[in-house]
Each structure stands twice: as C-alpha cells, then as structure tokens.
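Teaching assistant's notes for section 4

Start the section by putting this record on the projector. Ask students to predict, before seeing the second block, whether G_PROTEIN_RECEP_F1_2 domain-containing protein will look compact or extended. Collect guesses on the board.
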Amino acid sequence: MQQPLASNNTSLAAAPEAPVCVNQTLDLLTAVATGTPLCLIALATVFGNCLVLLAVATQPSLRSSATAVFISNLAIADLLLGVCVLPFSSVLEVTHGCWYFGQLLCHVWASVDVLCCTASIMSLCAISLDRYIGVTRPLRHASIVTRRRAVALAAGVWLLSLLVSVGPLLGWRTDGDGAQPNICRVSDNRAYIVFSVIVSFYLPLCVVIFFYIRIYQAASRQTRSLANGVVTARMRASNSQQSVNSTASASATSATAVVTLRVHRGGGGGGGACGLTGAGRQHQQSRLHMAGKLARFKREKKAAKTLGIVVGVFILCWLPFFFIYPFKEILCRQCSVPDLLFKVVFWLGYCNSLCNPVIYACSNREFKRAFWRLLSCFCRRQRQKRPGQMQQRQRLTSAATTTLQACHRQQRSSSSGQAPTRGAPSATELTLLNRKNHHW
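Reveal the predicted structure now:
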C-alpha cells in the first residue's frame, strides 16, 4: 500500500510541518534530475506489464492454463499502478509534496494507489496457492484450479482490495484532513493505519511464506518419491526382461524353428513369447506414465522456483516500507526518519511492480520466448514500414512519369497531326513531378 507523498511532510504519516506550496518556485535542473528517473520507472512498469498481458494473450501455452488468470491479474494491478498512480507520485516528488489537482482527485488517486498495491500483493497470494496445488497435486491441478475458480479468486482479490482502499473515502480519516487544499494524504487515523498495514501486507506476507514453505517441503518429498519410482520401474523392467530372455533362449535351443512358427501364429507354445510382449508393453506403459508424471512435476517445480524469486523480491521491496511506516506512525510519532531514507523505501515498494515482468522474462522460458517474439515482431514491422513507404513512393513516381509522358506525346501529335511518339517531359512537368515526389 502506497502513501501519496514525496517527503515525510506529505506521507500518510502526518508531519509536524506541511510543505509551503503557495508561490512555490521550482529549480528546473533539480526537477529534471528528480523527475526523469521516476518517469522512467513509470514507463518501464507500464511497458513490462503490457508485455506480460500480450504474452499471455498471444502464447497458447500460457493462455490455456488457469495460472494465466492469476499472472494476468497481477500484471493488471501493476499496470494500473504504473498508469494511474506513478505519474502523480512523480509530480509530488518534483513539487516537494505539493498537490495541485484538487482534493477530490487526491482522494480518488490515493484510494486507487491503495487498491492497486493491495491487489498486487494479494495476487501473489493467489499465485502461491496455485503453485502449491500444482506441486502437491500435479495430475489433478487442472481439475482443481479451473478457469472459473481462478476468475472467482481473482475477483475476490479485487473485492478485498477495494474494501481496504475505500475506508478513507467513507470517512475513516482524521478530522481536518481537508484544511490544507495543497496537501494530499490518505488518512492519519491510527486505527486505519493498523488495519491497512495488516490486511495489505503482513497478512498476505504470512500467507505467501506459509505456502512457499509447504511448496518447498512438498517439492523435496515429490522429488525423492518420483526418483525412487523411476529407479524401481527400471529395475523391474530389467529383471523381467532378463527372465524372459532366459526363457526365450532355452526355447530357441530346443526347437528354434517351431518357436518361430508359433510366435507368428500366436498360439500353443508361442504363448511364452506373447507373454513377453504383454509384459514388455506393461512395463513400458508404466515407465512412460512415470516419466510423464516426472516431467509434469518438473514443470511445476520450475514454476515454483519462479514464484520463489517473485516472493523474495516482493519481501525485499515492501518490507522496508511496511516496517518504517507503522513504526513511525504508530509506535513513535515523535521519531525522526531521514527524508531520503523514507523516499527510498517508498519508491522501492513501487519498484516491485516493475520487477515482476523482469523476473518472468529471466526465469520462465515460455515468457522469455513470448517476450522475444513480441519484440522481434515489433522491430520487424518497423523495418518493413520504411521499405513499404519507399515502394509506394516509387510506384507513385512511376505512375506520374507515365502520365506526363502520355500527355506530352498527345500534345505533340495534336500539334503536328502525326501519330503519337514517345518523348521526354518538359521542364515544368519535371518540376511538378519533383514537387509531388517531395510531398510523398
């Protein structure tokens, strides 16, 4: 959950002194130096999460699973944060905490800020639950986590996030919040601060850590179990093959020709050979089933590793802010937090929405292929756009030249009374032609 501020004086945390916003003058160099990196963060957040949504929409292997619903839900929350929240947060940093867009927009923007950040954090809980089911029940994952259930869970994430964010809009605020029209705060109410911090961060953090510990334990057990199962299947298949080979060798020693005929006819003494075929097929099917189960589990385990990276970055980005903020506002309001430190941990939380697409691109092969394909397609279209314009210009030039030559021949033939002959355009015609070419 983000607080709309650029400094300690404009945070959710009430400061002793408010910034002076009347007749404020801004240093251009400082404004550019501050605003440029923040705008780049906002643009990169929008670009990266748009890539995630396009990858899910265009890649069949990503779109077909219910997991895509949770990943898309996370990307939508981060995208809305980059579009609706980060630009205003950047302006607040540049203006040193002064809000010039009116109190109504302030309340709406602050609620959208809390909504998007809470939805992003809770989407990680939904992804953790999905990965836990995928690792513990890989063969039943598709039947347990259906798209309908995934959509219902994603809707629940947004509903709970909405309940957290509308508190200040419904009056859960400190009296006198609107006394300063150029200051934008969410709420100074300690009860709301405790509620929002617990529901928006610490409760989801406990859920995510719980599921990831269970995922790690289940993955370790499944890895050992599947490895032992494959070894056992191979040993059984090897022993059966050796036993049947011994029987076949003995039969071949006594009556090779008879055995061969019986095998082809499929009757009598050839039953032992037919039993070999059935046993071999059974063991082969068992091994294929075990191999398929192992391959599916490996995919789920790789997805769980990706989730582990996402969770680690999530904790790294958000924990500093949600430690400093409640400490300052609930436990020690008189404590002084350095302005630079608060700004760093404040924007570090925002950067979590930027990091998620990068994590997917670096740790998930399917997302990496989808991102590369989308970027390659975009670059290809840009390269093809210029040659297309050149070809169009050449066609127009050729058509104009042919028309001018035909008109010139017609004029010559009408003046001399002779049949039209091929000639060159006049200087005036060439000038008009060059002007058309320059226009195109």
